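Supplementary Methods, section 5.1.

A reviewer requested that the exact input to the structure prediction be made available. We therefore reproduce it here, unchanged from the version used in the analyses.
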Amino acid sequence: LFFRCLDQLQQFVQSYDLAALRDYWSYLDRRLFSRLEDVYRPTVNKLKTSLFRHYLVHAIQNGRNDKAQEFFLKQASELQNQAEWKDWFVLPFLPAPDSNPTFATYFSRQWADTFIVSLHNFLSVLFQFPVILNFEAECLRSSLIQEENESLRHKLFALQAESSRMKKEELEVEQTVMHHKLPAYVANMDRLGDSELDMTCNQRSTAHSLQSRGGFLSSFLSQSKKGPSRPTHSSGASPTQTGSILLGKKETTNHQSAKGKEGTMSCKDGKSHFSGLVAGESSSLQQRQKRLQEHGKERKELLSKGTFQGQSAEKKTDTSTAEAEPCSELNAEQTETSTKMPGSGAEAVGVRQEQPFIVLSQEEYGEHHSSIMYCRVDCSGRRVASLDVDGVIKVWSFNPIMQTKASSISKSPLLSLEWATKRDRLLLLGSGVGTVRLYDTEAKKNLCEISIDEDMPRILSLACSPSGASFVCSAAAQSPISHIDFSVINSGGKSMNQVPGKLLLWDTKTMKQQLQFSLEPGPIAINCTAFNHNGNLLVTGAADGIVRLFDMQQHECAMSWKAHDGEVYSVEFSYDENTVYTIGEDGKFIQWNIHKSGLKVSEYDLPREATGPFVLSGYSGYKQVQFPRGRLFAFDSEGNYMLTCSSTGGVIFKLNGEEKVLESCLSLGGHRAPVVTVDWSTAMDCGTCLTASMDGKIKLTTLLAQKS
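The structure derived from this sequence is encoded token-by-token as follows.
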């Protein structure tokens, strides 16, 4: 079969049929070459280049200069940006190209034979690959693996649910043993002061004793927990019940810590401990010691039955550690509980039992040494491009291992970054001096650099259309802010970044400007841009707080509305593309209906750590402030969950249009500095969340989603 392919290509070359040659090679590329691994892509590109050169040399050797000129006329748009073709455009106009040092090699018989043999060998090896021959077998194997993965997924979530249920039952058993087997005065003996021991020894009335103890515990709670005072209970309750009520749920961990320390003591240690407490009270020393001996015997009998409870608190050495224990347990169980963030006029808290995601792994990329501005995954979900405030660009992969593929340092400051959609090896880089660069991540070099506007040197945002044919560029004038006013930030003031700006459309192939969009009511800096799935719509967020929706077929603004009080920091289309989401300087996260201009679907309040400006405090009052640049939120594959920034890592919220609350279902954590930008890649079966912080660290968290 590969002999036929080779013969067909040679026939097209000899008959000067350029269109058929291009179409046939594209067919082979689509059906065969595209199925190969990435390591074979450079070889395919070199063979394609050599094939077209072979066509040109054959045409000129046979006196068909018209075919050579036709070749460059039709292929100019594709070849003019490729460095390997830069010297070949002069070929049809040379009087003796076979004697020219640049082209003499290609006109030799040896080069032509070498090329034919190389192409023959490549095709012969290619058709022996089982990847090519066994399509059906591979499809069947792939479907079986997917079914097995789905089965294992269900088993994993079932085991997780069973584990959660068993933990809950164990907790209930511990609480039952604690509350019902130990009397209140025994469980809290370590907390009794001298006044309580005096009241016990003097055998005051039960009501008086309970009233005094209640006052002591309520004052203790107000000092340590800062909680509200307890209401007065009826006098009809038993002493044990009343003691349990006064203690409340917030003292549960303290009781366990107290019992844990005493559970490992001998009766002798208990005597000496309590004797030490009352050593200064000589007036009632003998009565107290006698009373303590009775209590020691009773405690030894009771605590011998519940020794297992004391083991968990064995290492707790003081009361302050015991007080802090509930908070640490709450942080450790963030993946098992969820809270609801109130929206406008909404209630505050809710709990979800079933978790939508399981964290499979979390890795750290630490090649940056300054705050991250952008962190984006490419379309294939295999590579990440990250940019920091020092102008350092890193391109790295994470599957199967985390590895840096390319690294570059820009002489001029960089303000924006975007992956090209079709040729996903290319990066668009916007600078602070009015230029946009096209960077080849595989060749590790700049392909071209274009100048946008000297009067508007800040390239704030770049967005490439899904077709890859064009990209939009937002250019803005210099900001009037020369320093950061912390008082303005702390008081919620605006950043005063409303400067003139332009929104331009550029052709990706020719790197020439196509048009400038009209911005009403006047020129303004565009902070963020996003295309819909087919590139027919473009949504932008500006420094004046206005969201503009552009029709990319008519190249005009279809609608606009005032979205935020202050700047719009980030904007994205929803999963169904009937709405757009925005985050603004006012701390609002709002969903808008794009079919009715300015119709608000939902609105939520976000903390400042999720919206910026982001502040990193250091020693001696030093503060580093960064205004939002990259993406502040990202959605999962079905648009039901949203990843946002926080001070310690990413937070995933559930989007529920029926309730006016944001339901937090998972905290990713892992950061020691504020997270300033996020991304969520859904190209793989397991979702990959990226969270980048002000200390230059990037966390890559792999999630397993539970499918309904």
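The longest strand covers residues 357-365. These observations are discussed further in the main text.
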